[in-house]
């Protein structure tokens, strides 16, 4: 299951250049100006003409929007990355592809046209109704259904043995417990409602679409369909609400089982926080692979077989949650009302297999993912991890055929024939893992193409929309920024700015006006994302910089409102790996007066403490220290948190945050550990931050770092003034200057 990026519901043409903030008018001179500007975009003209010749409709308003967006993107890139050579035709092609990426965003009208008025035939309810009557109970009939499905191969006690799952596997007993099906857990306040809730208005509109989708599941044996009156007679039955939503690239959208909506009569739902806790207790917590763990996997395999021989692969389990049964005595809790069939009889469906919507399914299925991962890693030369139903691995090219066959065999042995979606198996030197593109040729990680286009276009739409965005839309764009700041590290300070715009809002549909800070944050994100396209080798993140590494350097620090005290040391990395880390080796001591008057205002204290960390990082770079992990040690929790999390919560530290991330990104320094000590134990750095001299602290001339001789460090100290928020002036210029400044730290 590919990790999905949330979508903003936008359709072309919503793009507007808000920087120019020009109002549309019917002035003929403006129209002539628009045509002239379009004429400058020769590549765009060619792409639009080709599309129209191929029958793709592109109206004049869309053409105008695309033209404006191309000009906006080109000017913003030139401003933020003035040293980059830009080809206008490349920008045209990128914007055209981003625009066309919305072709797969369908609405209700398209879905209804696809369904073409479909209704479930009246004969459909007969199969399961007769089965229920024949067996005398829902449990008996579901057991019969399970037995028939198992004939084609499913998870079973025999398959666990055949796959070779060892009894000492940490999930062995829990896997065996899943053979008879998943137990649907409910909290102590749960009361089955015995009756369906009124169908939602949207569901009623889209009933023909849902009916057609449910018919496909019915024919595959994944659901039972019965008259609602019959289902209501089943003791303890509980109905959750049926729903439908749009899905990118799927004209038919997707049906949703909403098990979180409380019943109108009982006020309770199948899902709850208590149920989640119960699921964790029963099946354990979920530990998904991340871009960090997958990068570590790639590095281990590259060290084993060599970068030039390495190849990546992925394999997909077919049906995901449907590969597991629901226990026969729990199916009664998984009822969902449908509309009426062609005969006018109200229908309901029930799930005899796993389904999307109940809180516990991901936790239960994680047992399968964990076991499959361990099984595959025992029989392959390389290594793999699993995200729900996506198995991802790496090995030598000469080992690929063996590893793919061995991985597939273990999946089939455990879960049965047809459990692997063979058409989705991929391998290569460039491959997408859970929304990230791993490129072995350039040895970098970037945003996967589909997610890249979706994010770029969504941000451009928001940046240029004439309509204020909703809280929900801003939250989604902010979540993209937060996620992809793993690659675009230098932009982390601006993810918080987007979240700040919606802080305090509860109504998701409320529309808000974006401020100057948010608009500039979008400018930086849009242009930097574009640079991932135009200069991936330079702008994507090197794979080796992503995994956690042991700290090699130590920054001890303290700050007052008029000075900084910093001590730099080198750590014993080899000793730490062996568990016998020796005492840090002293490098330099630094006493740095603050060149701006902060008075006695305590609100600046956190910012000056963080300033000490930033200056410590800069001094490390000046000493030639780069490409390493850093431990910071101080008595201020805020600055420690900002440094280790790379999340910054104060406007007073904005300039420091921008320069901190610029240093970290350019010179590959990562604060991997933060150590808090009591102020009374931070005596040496505290004294240096105040009136105690370096000499009085016991340092010789050779121990002192002469930071005053570094033009770049002096400039950095001046520009990180917490009294001035760069967002109040020219934030883009400030960011460009920061990138240029940190480049000079080694000069």
Folded structure, characterized:
There is one protein chain. This protein is of the alpha+beta class and 747 residues long. It folds into three domains: 28-105 and 447-541, no CATH class; 124-283 and 321-363, Roll (HIV Type 1 Reverse Transcriptase, Chain A, domain 1), CATH 3.10.10.10; 548-746, Ribonuclease H-like superfamily/Ribonuclease H (Nucleotidyltransferase, domain 5), CATH 3.30.420. The chain contains 28 helices and 18 strands. The strands form four sheets. Strands 1-6-5-2-3 form a five-stranded mixed beta sheet. Strands 16-15-14-17-18 form a five-stranded mixed beta sheet. A four-stranded antiparallel beta sheet has the order 7-8-4-9. A hairpin with a 2-residue loop joins β10 (430-433) and β11 (436-439). It starts with 27 loop residues before the first helix and ends with a helix. The relative contact order is 0.09. The model is unreliable at 1-27 and 29-34 (pLDDT under 50).
Which helices and strands appear, and what pairs or packs with what?
Layout: H1 28-39, H2 42-53, H3 60-80, H4 88-100, H5 108-115, H6 124-135, H7 138-150, H8 157-163, H9 172-178, H10 201-205, H11 207-219, E1 224-227, H12 228-232, E2 239-247, E3 250-258, H13 273-283, H14 291-305, E4 310-316, E5 335-340, E6 346-350, H15 361-379, E7 383-387, E8 390-396, H16 400-415, E9 426-428, E10 430-433, E11 436-439, E12 444-447, H17 449-464, H18 471-484, H19 492-500, H20 516-534, H21 536-539, E13 541-542, E14 551-559, E15 563-570, H22 573-577, E16 585-593, H23 605-622, E17 628-634, H24 637-645, H25 654-667, E18 669-676, H26 683-688, H27 711-719, H28 731-743
């Amino acid at each position: 299951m590919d990790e999905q990026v949330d979508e903003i519901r936008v359709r072309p043409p919503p793009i507007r250049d808000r920087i120019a903030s020009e109002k549309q008018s019917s002035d003929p001179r403006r129209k002539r100006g628009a045509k002239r500007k379009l004429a400058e975009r020769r590549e765009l003209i060619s792409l639009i003409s080709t599309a129209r010749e191929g029958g793709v409709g592109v109206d004049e308003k869309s053409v105008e929007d695309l033209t404006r967006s191309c000009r906006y993107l080109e000017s913003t890139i030139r401003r933020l990355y003035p040293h980059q050579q830009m080809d206008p035709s490349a920008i045209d092609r990128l914007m055209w592809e981003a625009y066309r990426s919305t072709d797969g965003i369908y609405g209700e009208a398209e879905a209804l046209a696809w369904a073409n008025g479909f209704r479930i035939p009246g004969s459909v309810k007969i199969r399961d109704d007769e089965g229920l009557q024949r067996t005398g109970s829902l449990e008996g009939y579901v057991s019969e259904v399970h037995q028939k499905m198992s004939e084609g191969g499913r998870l079973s006690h025999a398959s666990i043995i055949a796959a070779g799952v060892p009894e000492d596997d940490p999930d062995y007993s829990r896997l065996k417990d899943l053979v008879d099906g998943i137990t649907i857990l409910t909290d102590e306040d749960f009361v089955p409602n015995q009756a369906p809730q009124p169908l939602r208005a949207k569901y009623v509109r889209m009933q023909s679409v849902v009916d057609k989708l449910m018919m496909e599941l019915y024919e595959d044996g994944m659901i039972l369909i019965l008259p609602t009156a019959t289902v209501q007679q089943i003791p303890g039955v509980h109905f959750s609400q049926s729903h439908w939503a749009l899905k990118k690239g799927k004209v038919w959208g997707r049906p949703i089982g909403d098990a979180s909506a409380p019943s109108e009569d009982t006020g309770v739902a199948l899902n709850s926080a208590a149920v989640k806790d119960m699921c964790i207790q029963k099946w354990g917590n979920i530990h998904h692979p991340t871009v960090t763990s997958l990068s570590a996997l790639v590095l281990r395999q590259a060290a084993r077989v060599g970068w030039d021989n390495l190849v990546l692969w992925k394999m997909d389990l077919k049906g995901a949650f449907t590969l597991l049964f629901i226990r026969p005595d729990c199916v009664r809790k998984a009822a969902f009302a449908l509309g009426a069939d062609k005969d006018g009889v109200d229908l309901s469906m029930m799930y005899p297999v796993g389904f999307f919507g109940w809180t516990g399914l991901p936790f239960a299925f994680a047992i399968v993912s964990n076991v499959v991962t361990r099984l595959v890693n025992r029989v392959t030369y390389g290594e793999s991890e699993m995200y729900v139903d996506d198995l991802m691995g790496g090995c030598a090219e000469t080992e690929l055929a063996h590893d793919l066959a061995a991985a597939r065999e273990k999946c089939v042995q455990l879960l049965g024939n047809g459990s692997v979606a063979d058409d989705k198996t991929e391998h290569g030197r460039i491959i997408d893992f859970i929304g990230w593109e791993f490129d072995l040729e350039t040895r970098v990680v970037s945003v996967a193409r589909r997610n890249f286009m979706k994010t770029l276009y969504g941000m451009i739409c928001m940046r240029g929309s004439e309509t204020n965005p909703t809280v929900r839309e801003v939250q989604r764009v902010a979540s993209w920024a937060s996620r992809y700041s793993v690659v675009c590290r230098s932009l982390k300070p601006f993810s918080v700015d987007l979240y700040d715009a919606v802080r305090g809002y509860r109504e998701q549909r409320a529309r808000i006006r974006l401020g100057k800070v948010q608009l500039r944050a979008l400018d930086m994100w849009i242009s930097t994302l574009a640079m991932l396209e135009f200069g991936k080798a330079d702008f994507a993140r090197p794979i080796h910089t992503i995994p956690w590494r042991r700290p090699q350097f130590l920054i001890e620090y303290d700050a007052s409102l008029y000075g900084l005290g910093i001590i730099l040391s080198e750590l014993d990395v080899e000793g730490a790996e062996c568990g016998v880390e020796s005492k840090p080796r002293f490098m330099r001591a630094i006493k740095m007066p603050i060149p701006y008057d902060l008075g006695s205002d305590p609100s600046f204290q956190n910012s000056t403490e963080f300033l000490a960390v930033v200056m410590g990082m800069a001094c490390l770079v000046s000493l030639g220290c780069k490409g390493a992990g850093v431990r910071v040690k101080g008595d201020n929790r805020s600055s420690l948190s900002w440094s280790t999390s790379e999340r910054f919560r104060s406007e007073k530290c904005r300039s420091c945050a921008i320069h901190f991330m610029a240093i970290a990104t350019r010179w590959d320094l990562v604060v991997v550990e933060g150590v808090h000590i009591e102020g009374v134990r931070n005596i040496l750095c505290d004294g240096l931050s105040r009136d105690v001299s370096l000499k009085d602290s016991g340092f010789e001339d050779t121990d002192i770092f002469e930071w005053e001789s570094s033009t770049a460090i002096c400039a950095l100290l001046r520009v990180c003034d917490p009294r001035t928020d760069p967002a109040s002036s020219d934030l883009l210029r400030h960011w460009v200057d920061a990138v240029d400044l940190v480049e000079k730290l080694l000069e």
